TrEMBL record:
Cross-referenced InterPro entries: AAA+_ATPase, ABC_transporter-like_ATP-bd, ABC_transporter-like_CS, P-loop_NTPase, PstB-like
GO molecular function: ATP binding; ATP hydrolysis activity; phosphate transmembrane transporter activity
Membrane-spanning parts: none
PROSITE patterns, A to Z: ABC_TRANSPORTER_1, ABC_TRANSPORTER_2
GO cellular component, one term: membrane
Keywords: ATP-binding, Cell membrane, Membrane, Nucleotide-binding, Transport
Designated name of the protein: Phosphate ABC transporter ATP-binding protein
Length: 287
């Protein structure tokens, strides 16, 4: 990245042989060029009624990596996350303009079925929310609801695999028939992760998945996120900057008003950000 003579920084996308600059602010930044991004946002605006929550977001999310979304409260991180698998559709007053593509297809095209989309792009929420069902049924639900429980599918094997991938199988192997609600908070969250991965999505969206957990459970979730990225693409919202620095490959910094101010390799963001506002945010001067 370089600064031009007018003081406006430009971003070199050498592989594409072009350079771009953000017309929105005086501290625009780097949107690293990602070869074949799995998710791509172009000029994405999101509104709640008359209020605009996100402004012209451009982002390319790489496959099988962890991308962290950070920024102060209310800057639009969760709104962006929910735009990816159209969870904002469930909010009556939410409206989306612009492009958000998954493997090159705009997820807001009329022919996209949001339920099928969410099969490919699963989600884990801040507060563990297991169903009042057995551990087994919580995970099997993810398969059944998505029609993956046909005669040719070994549901038990799939449930065990999902629990294993969520680093929970060993702890619950002898109690699969017991209620998911009887697990600890950290185990409940790993159960929700198992439920999300059982239908074999390509992307897992996580909205502050460890913020309700104690440090030991948090550390298990962090280890798990890194492991999941070997097989899935993970996009995670976190308030915890140390967590973003520890577990993510790319970091997107949103700042007040719903602007994406900088998006780059995580090391670059935390060691040498382009934007003064990002530097102030990550060094704790505000937020
Ligand atoms: N369902 C909703 N209805 C109306 N406005 C909403 C709704 N959800 C979010 N907003 C508004 O959109 C803006 C962005 O909110 P969002 O929850 O995406 O931010 P955030 O960065 O995830 O915040 P936090 O870190 O506190 O969770 C805020 O001004 C918020 O009040």
């Amino acid at each position: 990245m370089t600064a031009n003579s007018g003081g406006q920084r430009t971003v070199s996308t050498s592989e594409a042989g072009e350079s771009r600059s953000d017309p929105m602010t005086d501290a625009p930044l780097g949107s690293p060029h990602v070869a074949d991004p799995i998710i791509e946002s172009r000029d994405l605006d999101v509104y709640y009624g008359d209020d605009q929550a996100l402004h012209s977001i451009d982002m390319e999310i790489p496959e099988q990596q962890v991308t962290a979304l950070i920024g102060p409260s209310g800057c639009g991180k969760s709104t962006f996350l929910r735009s990816i698998n159209r969870m904002n559709d469930l909010i009556d007053i939410a409206r989306v303009d612009g492009d958000l593509s998954f493997r090159g297809k705009n997820v807001y095209d009329e022919d996209v079925d949001p339920v099928a989309l969410r099969r490919k792009i699963g989600m884990v929420f801040q507060k563990p929310n297991p169903f009042p069902k057995s551990i087994f049924d919580n995970v099997a639900y993810g398969l059944r609801v998505q029609g993956k429980d046909g005669a040719d599918v070994d549901v038990e094997a799939e449930v065990r695999t999902a629990l294993e991938r969520a680093a929970l199988l060993e702890e619950v192997e002898d109690q699969l028939d017991e209620s998911g609600l009887e697990l600890s908070g950290g185990q409940q969250q790993r159960l929700c992760i198992a439920r999300a991965i059982a239908p074999d999505p390509e992307v897992i969206l996580m909205d502050e998945p460890a913020s309700a957990l104690d440090p030991v459970a948090t550390s298990k979730i962090e280890d798990l996120v890194e492991e999941l990225a070997e097989e899935y693409t993970v996009v995670i919202v976190t308030h915890n900057m140390q967590q973003a620095a520890r577990i993510s490959d790319k970091t997107a910094v949103f700042l007040t008003g719903g602007h994406l101010v900088e998006f780059d390799d995580t090391n670059k963001i935390f060691e040498n950000p382009e934007s003064d506002r990002v530097e102030d945010y990550i060094t704790g001067k505000f937020g």
